[in-house]
């Protein structure tokens, strides 16, 4: 990352569809995105994965990012948005058919800034899952994930951040008529069947 302005012309010219994928920690965003990629061939960019890669790269801000993520808090908007822009540009250069932006927006301002600077999203897909289920899934994932934030202490903090900062995102896109609210307590395939209904409709529109 640098302070240089990112030239978004190729991304804007591509004009491909963009879907925001929103949900609490462990709601199944990554799991469903994998299935969407397999069916629709869209490019999947997870803001959390991009941040973890940035930490792994050993960049100067890695230590600062680790601290924020282990505290279950949100990293600054410009840091995430710049990582997403760079990743989108790389995908567009490879001929991307469209994007799943997983874990973004985490706060209303993130969505507004993304849409103002890049392009409006077609739809925000929201996976609605109870806190009990989220905790169960994350504790199970903790057995194998190696993720520093898959522990009870950080999970509680991530849920608090979700309720305070991200729940308003859901209301924001609902008000704009751009929200697909999907009850996501069932099996992966049951949830995916609902996802397909919404994506097919949005892609045709
Ligand atoms: N429908 C489901 N039923 C049971 N387990 C599921 C379901 N969907 C996903 N999982 C599992 C897979 C993972 O171990 C865990 C969390 O799913 P995952 O796709 O990683 O969530 P996520 O991407 O929303 O979480 P995070 O925000 O932490 O990255 O739950
Ligand atoms: N869009 C984001 N804004 C701020 N912080 C973010 C964003 N996406 C991820 N993060 C940080 C905070 C999260 O707790 C961790 C892990 O993200 P995840 O999507 O759960 O993998 O990264
Ligand atoms: Mg994920």
From TrEMBL:
<dbReference type="InterPro" id="IPR028582">
    <property type="entry name" value="AK1"/>
</dbReference>
<feature type="binding site">
    <location>
        <position position="141"/>
    </location>
    <ligand>
        <name>ATP</name>
    </ligand>
</feature>
<dbReference type="GO" id="GO:0033862">
    <property type="term" value="F:UMP kinase activity"/>
</dbReference>
<comment type="subunit">
    <text>Monomer.</text>
</comment>
<dbReference type="InterPro" id="IPR033690">
    <property type="entry name" value="Adenylat_kinase_CS"/>
</dbReference>
<dbReference type="GO" id="GO:0006225">
    <property type="term" value="P:UDP biosynthetic process"/>
</dbReference>
<dbReference type="GO" id="GO:0046034">
    <property type="term" value="P:ATP metabolic process"/>
</dbReference>
<keyword id="KW-0547">Nucleotide-binding</keyword>
<comment type="function">
    <text>Catalyzes the phosphorylation of pyrimidine nucleoside monophosphates at the expense of ATP. Plays an important role in de novo pyrimidine nucleotide biosynthesis. Has preference for UMP and CMP as phosphate acceptors.</text>
</comment>
<keyword id="KW-0963">Cytoplasm</keyword>
<feature type="region of interest" description="NMPbind">
    <location>
        <begin position="46"/>
        <end position="75"/>
    </location>
</feature>
<comment type="similarity">
    <text>Belongs to the adenylate kinase family. AK1 subfamily.</text>
</comment>
<dbReference type="GO" id="GO:0009142">
    <property type="term" value="P:nucleoside triphosphate biosynthetic process"/>
</dbReference>
<dbReference type="GO" id="GO:0046033">
    <property type="term" value="P:AMP metabolic process"/>
</dbReference>
<dbReference type="GO" id="GO:0005829">
    <property type="term" value="C:cytosol"/>
</dbReference>
<dbReference type="Pfam" id="PF00406">
    <property type="entry name" value="ADK"/>
</dbReference>
<feature type="binding site">
    <location>
        <position position="186"/>
    </location>
    <ligand>
        <name>ATP</name>
    </ligand>
</feature>
<protein>
    <recommendedName>
        <fullName>Adenylate kinase isoenzyme 1</fullName>
        <ecNumber>2.7.4.3</ecNumber>
    </recommendedName>
</protein>
<keyword id="KW-0808">Transferase</keyword>
<dbReference type="GO" id="GO:0004017">
    <property type="term" value="F:AMP kinase activity"/>
</dbReference>
<keyword id="KW-0418">Kinase</keyword>
<feature type="binding site">
    <location>
        <begin position="73"/>
        <end position="75"/>
    </location>
    <ligand>
        <name>AMP</name>
    </ligand>
</feature>
<dbReference type="GO" id="GO:0006172">
    <property type="term" value="P:ADP biosynthetic process"/>
</dbReference>
<dbReference type="InterPro" id="IPR000850">
    <property type="entry name" value="Adenylat/UMP-CMP_kin"/>
</dbReference>
<feature type="binding site">
    <location>
        <position position="52"/>
    </location>
    <ligand>
        <name>AMP</name>
    </ligand>
</feature>
<feature type="binding site">
    <location>
        <begin position="103"/>
        <end position="106"/>
    </location>
    <ligand>
        <name>AMP</name>
    </ligand>
</feature>
<feature type="binding site">
    <location>
        <position position="147"/>
    </location>
    <ligand>
        <name>AMP</name>
    </ligand>
</feature>
<dbReference type="GO" id="GO:0005737">
    <property type="term" value="C:cytoplasm"/>
</dbReference>
<feature type="binding site">
    <location>
        <position position="158"/>
    </location>
    <ligand>
        <name>AMP</name>
    </ligand>
</feature>
<feature type="binding site">
    <location>
        <position position="110"/>
    </location>
    <ligand>
        <name>AMP</name>
    </ligand>
</feature>
<feature type="binding site">
    <location>
        <begin position="26"/>
        <end position="31"/>
    </location>
    <ligand>
        <name>ATP</name>
    </ligand>
</feature>
<keyword id="KW-0067">ATP-binding</keyword>
<feature type="binding site">
    <location>
        <position position="47"/>
    </location>
    <ligand>
        <name>AMP</name>
    </ligand>
</feature>
<dbReference type="InterPro" id="IPR027417">
    <property type="entry name" value="P-loop_NTPase"/>
</dbReference>
<dbReference type="InterPro" id="IPR006267">
    <property type="entry name" value="AK1/5"/>
</dbReference>
<dbReference type="GO" id="GO:0005524">
    <property type="term" value="F:ATP binding"/>
</dbReference>
<dbReference type="GO" id="GO:0004550">
    <property type="term" value="F:nucleoside diphosphate kinase activity"/>
</dbReference>
<feature type="region of interest" description="LID">
    <location>
        <begin position="140"/>
        <end position="150"/>
    </location>
</feature>
<comment type="function">
    <text>Catalyzes the reversible transfer of the terminal phosphate group between ATP and AMP. Plays an important role in cellular energy homeostasis and in adenine nucleotide metabolism.</text>
</comment>
